[in-house]
Design a protein that fits this description.
Elements (H helix, E strand, L loop, with lengths): L19 E5 L2 E4 L4 E4 L2 H4 L10 H11 L11 H13 L4 E7 L2 H18 L7 E5 L8 H6 L3 H4 L11 E2 L13 H19 L4 E6 L14 H13 L3 E5 L23 E4 L11 E6 H8 L16 H13 L2 H17 L9 E7 L2 E6 L15 H11 L2 E2 L1 E4 L8 E5 L7 H22 L9
Parallel strand pairs: 3-13, 5-6, 5-7, 7-8, 8-9
Antiparallel strand pairs: 1-2, 2-3, 4-10, 9-10, 11-12, 12-15, 14-15
Helix pairs in contact: 2-10, 3-10, 7-8, 11-13, 12-13
The structure holds pyridoxal-5'-phosphate (PLP).
Length: 453
């Protein structure tokens, strides 16, 4: 039931969900008067907390000036200003933005652009998008086709494109031998194998979360991995799409996760932190080479868009939010990430914790029944979910997940609080999560299968 999000169908959203009536800084207040620490920034969205000043007046001004235009026929300064700022912030080499309304749309746009670009540049067969297992790129059918999140895919598999998937960038469970660099290069080599299997003439793009999000939170490889990915993509004329919907805007310690590796993608999908939750907005950043294929007088056309693409109100709010991001905020995020790790230090060697990983202000805690063999718990024990519930009882909202091992087995918890979270809230998270893991360990410790075997 936790993914049931219908309002007004059979009585509304899951009645067990607490109703939130107020949100301030890193705190959410429920209708029952409970004050929760938002240790997941919603869904890794509210990077700047829930009370950034000035958003209301920016929205009101834009609404009274120009609330909506159709981007099929008109231009407006707010989306232009937003695009300029995005181009300025993102890595050099990305020089244009296609503005949409959600992360899924940003990825759909990237996938269609990849096909349209190759078609326009003399490679009309290139169409497939290679993704990775244990990844998530969105809920729409194209985005889900590239995603490797088995549980979110399974019901819809007859409707999905049969695009290849390679193993995830998941050092904790890699089977490769050698130094971290050698393992990283071997893992990246899976892309070359997949391209050769499908035929380079058929492959348009490769999409990856540079630091994994909800499916294997905070998993990240040695930088050699992405350097090798870049090399392979260049060799086979495959566009590299970095899905930074969750990792963008300081989440992993750098402005963008690719900055950790010194690699520039051909396209970058942005969402979530782009407005930090103050309006629905997302963007597909594209390289100059791609933009030029469509911009020239005799260039190809890219017929694509949504009614709310480049929405003026979302764009104005986006501009205001982007002004808040700067070196200070990113440094604060790194420092708060380290403080949160310190508050959770007792878990690093906990018998139920197989892997404790951090990238900036994103932490992934992977639970195992046996640390030595890395054996996960029986999925029916719902270990991640139980830790989540225990933490909620202690006033802390976290982001649980499962399926990290093979899409079915594997439990984890993601922590991704606002980058600006205060010390007191960090202490509360630390205490609540430590106690919650301890409580669940007490119930299921040493139990691998639900029948106790
Ligand atoms: C990495 C990543 N890509 C894409 C999406 C989809 O974004 P949206 O839910 O805004 O469509 C998500 C959402 O969680 C995500 O984490």
């Amino acid at each position: 039931m936790d993914e049931t999000l219908f309002y007004k169908w059979g009585g509304g959203i899951d009645p067990a969900f607490p109703e939130i009536v107020e949100a301030q800084d890193a705190y959410l207040v429920t209708a029952d008067g409970d004050r929760l620490v938002d240790a997941a920034a919603g869904a890794a969205v509210a990077n700047l907390g829930h009370s950034v000043p000035g958003v209301g007046s920016v929205a009101a001004d834009q609404l009274s000036e120009v609330a909506y235009i159709s981007t099929s026929h008109f231009a407006h300064e707010a989306p232009e200003r937003l695009t300029d700022r995005l181009v300025e912030m993102t890595p050099d080499g990305l020089s244009a933005a296609f503005l949409v309304g959600s992360g899924s749309e940003a990825n759909e746009t990237a996938f269609k652009l990849a096909r349209a670009y190759h078609h326009a540049t003399g490679n009309p067969e290139k169409h497939a998008v290679i993704g990775r297992w244990q990844s998530y790129h969105g809920a729409t059918l194209g985005a889900l086709s590239a995603s490797g999140n088995t549980s979110r895919r399974s019901l819809y598999s007859p409707q999905l494109n049969e695009w290849p998937h390679i193993p995830p960038a998941y050092p904790y469970r890699w089977p490769y031998e050698g130094s971290p660099q050698e393992q990283a290069i071997a893992a990246a080599g899976e892309l070359e194998t997949a391209i050769l299997q499908v035929g380079p003439e058929n492959v348009a793009a490769f999409v990856a979360e540079p630091v994994s999000g909800a499916s294997i939170p905070a998993a990240h490889p040695d930088p050699a991995y992405y350097r090798e990915i870049r090399r392979i993509c260049d060799e086979y004329d495959v566009l590299f799409i970095a899905d930074e919907v969750m990792t963008g805007f300081g989440r992993t310690g750098e402005p963008f996760a690719v900055d950790r590796y010194g690699v520039v993608p051909d396209m970058m999908s942005l969402g979530k932190g782009i407005t930090a939750g103050y309006a629905p907005l997302a963007a597909t950043m594209v390289s100059e080479g791609i933009a030029r294929a469509f911009d020239a007088d005799d260039g190809a056309s890219f017929w694509h868009g949504h009614t709310f693409s480049a929405n003026p109100v979302s764009s104005a709010i986006g501009c205001h939010v982007l002004e808040q991001y700067g070196p200070d905020v990113f440094e604060t995020g790194r420092e708060r990430g380290r403080a949160l790790e310190a508050a959770l230090e007792a878990l690093v060697d906990h018998p139920m914790v197989g892997d404790f990983r951090r990238a900036g202000a994103m932490i992934g805690i992977e639970f195992v029944a046996d640390r030595e063999s890395k054996e996960p718990f029986d999925p029916s024990l719902s270990v991640g979910r139980r830790v989540y519930e225990e933490a909620m009882d202690r006033g802390v909202y976290t982001y649980p997940g499962s399926g990290s091992v093979d899409g079915h087995r594997g439990d984890h918890l993601m922590l991704a609080p606002p980058l600006t979270i205060g010390e007191e809230a960090i202490e509360t998270i630390g205490r609540a999560v430590r106690e919650s893991v301890e409580a669940v360990h007490h119930e299921v410790g040493g139990v691998v299968r639900a029948d106790g075997g």
